[in-house]
């Protein structure tokens, strides 16, 4: 089963908490702080794996979590770092943040790694918060909580050449004749419901990858049928072989069919029509196809589309077609951009995350990255230190947030181990 779009949940490891501890030994009853730091949380890493051709594995496992860092210990012992998790995906996988739709990563090479979520930093032990005026701090820094996301994995096949055209025009037969692929072939619409890949060996030049893109229909660019799912796989294709039924077996006009498919490509992404394209006029072994081949040449060769009469069923004309394709690939620009450059999804820096205010037994408890550092390094017993403390609460927006929570004069505020009454 070919799976090319799944939704999964990923979470980085949380940092371990710092330890509150004081050195104790024989004859030493009031030693200094010796709380160790918490370990760092594990990362979430995606890596490209060319041996994978589908996202099938993600149908059975949808939640991926990195390991949390261990808490710090006594005697300055650091907590162990959490174990990172590596998620293998097929080459050509685009990773989007589900809510915003923004691209977080684009894996295009085997072995390419992308750290999507960094693990949370471990909290500092109380040893770091000792100052000349506060020699026995009874609090430590909590570990940072790592990010977590719902993400969409989209597989966009990376092929040198793509076979496009309406259903039942002979694309799968052509693929089976020139590569080692064994697609399902039958005489009915939509035999191919998923892309097939094959390698054309170096008989016509350098080897190249050929993809059979499932048959498109009119309105595919608007999502008709499985249009968007099919069109996704043509975006990273260098050259198109546009296969058309030159015999008009089902009563369609091959000239008009080429135009319809190209209109769908243009509507989905105008850049697609700028790719090199050759027309394979198939089924020329059927009487009456000669006239349509000439009509195709008259209609499209002036537009730069070479027309090659072939019969995939009888292996006729394929050498000329593939030799031309190999020639196009040989002269293909190396620096072509297959998709518009994207702005990577930016995580909010952990030191810019907002503080939180909870009400516990009538006490307004303030927590947040940076708040505990301010407390640890500020001596509020001095006039200068207290003025800095007040200014910090105001500039950080803590005063305003407390008022929004309904705090009144005389109510108690707690920031880690320090409590004070609120007066405006």
Describe this structure in words.
With 424 residues, the chain is of the alpha/beta class. It has 3 domains: 5-155, GTP1/OBG domain (Spo0b-associated Gtp-binding Protein, Chain: A, Distorted Sandwich); 159-330, 3-Layer(aba) Sandwich (Rossmann fold); 353-421, 2-Layer Sandwich (GMP Synthetase, Chain A, domain 3). 19% of the residues lie in helices and 23% in strands. Residues 182-193, 218-228, 340-344 and 347-352 have low confidence and may be disordered.
Per DSSP E runs of 2 or more residues, the count of β-strands stands at 18
Number of domains: 3
Shape: elongated
CATH class division of the largest domain? Alpha Beta
Strand content: 15-25%
Number of helices: 8
For the record, give the distance between the C-alpha atoms at the N and C termini, rounded to a whole number.
66 Å
Q: Give the % helix.
A: 10-25%
> Uncertain segments of ≥5 residues (pLDDT<50)?
182-193, 218-228, 340-344, 347-352
CATH topology of the largest domain: Rossmann fold
Average per-residue pLDDT, rounded, comes to 79
């Amino acid at each position: 089963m070919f799976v090319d779009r799944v939704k999964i949940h990923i979470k980085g490891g949380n940092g371990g908490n710092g330890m509150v501890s004081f050195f104790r030994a024989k004859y030493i009853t009031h030693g200094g702080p010796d709380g160790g730091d918490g370990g760092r949380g594990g990362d979430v890493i995606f890596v490209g794996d060319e041996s994978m051709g589908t996202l099938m594995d993600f149908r059975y496992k949808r939640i991926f979590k990195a390991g949390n860092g261990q808490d710090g210990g006594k005697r300055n012992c650091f907590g162990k770092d959490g174990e990172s998790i590596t998620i293998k995906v097929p080459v050509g996988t685009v990773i989007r943040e589900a809510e915003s739709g923004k691209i977080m990563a684009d894996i295009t090479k085997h072995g390419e790694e992308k750290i999507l979520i960094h693990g949370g930093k471990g909290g500092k032990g109380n040893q770091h918060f000792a100052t000349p005026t506060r020699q026995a701090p009874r609090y430590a820094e909590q570990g940072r909580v790592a990010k977590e996301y719902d993400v969409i994995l989209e597989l966009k096949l990376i092929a040198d050449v793509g076979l496009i055209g309406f259903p039942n025009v002979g694309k799968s037969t052509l693929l089976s004749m020139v590569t080692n692929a064994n697609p399902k072939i039958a005489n009915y619409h939509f035999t191919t419901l998923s892309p097939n890949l094959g390698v054309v060996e170096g008989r016509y030049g350098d080897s190249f990858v050929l993809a059979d893109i499932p048959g498109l229909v009119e309105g595919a660019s608007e999502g008709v049928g499985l249009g968007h799912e099919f069109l996704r796989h043509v975006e990273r294709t260098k050259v198109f072989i546009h296969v058309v039924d030159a015999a008009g077996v089902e009563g369609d006009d091959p000239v008009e069919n080429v135009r319809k498919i190209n209109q769908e490509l243009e509507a989905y992404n105008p850049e697609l029509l700028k790719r090199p394209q050759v027309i394979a006029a198939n089924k020329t072994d059927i009487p009456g196809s000669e006239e349509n081949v000439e009509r195709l040449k008259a209609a499209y060769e002036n537009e730069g589309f070479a027309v090659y009469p072939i019969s995939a069923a009888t292996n006729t004309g394929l050498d000329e077609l593939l030799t031309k394709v190999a020639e196009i690939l040989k002269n293909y620009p190396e620096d072509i951009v297959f998709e518009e450059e994207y702005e990577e999804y930016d995580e909010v820096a952990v030191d810019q995350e907002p503080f939180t205010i909870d009400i516990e037994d009538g006490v307004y408890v303030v927590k947040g990255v940076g708040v505990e550092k301010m407390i640890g390094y500020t001596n509020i017993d001095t006039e200068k230190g207290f003025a800095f403390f007040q200014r910090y609460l105001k500039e950080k927006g803590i005063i305003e947030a407390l008022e929004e929570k309904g705090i009144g004069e005389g109510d108690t505020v707690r920031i880690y181990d320090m409590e004070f009454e609120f007066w405006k």
